[in-house]
Amino acid sequence: xxxxxxxxxxxxxxxxxxxxxxxxxxxxxxxxxxxxxxxxxxxxxxxxxxxxxxxxxxx
Length: 59
Prior knowledge:
Layout: H1 38-58
């Protein structure tokens, strides 16, 4: 007897996608240069360098 798979889906919206206004670009929004320590500054420099490398690969 077939039809068992028809009842497994609990979601009504099978192909739900995130709305474009809720998609973030991956960058932190809140950052205070005054509160940043040495590790934060290093991480920010690494992030900028990685962003530049990614931009160059897209071209």
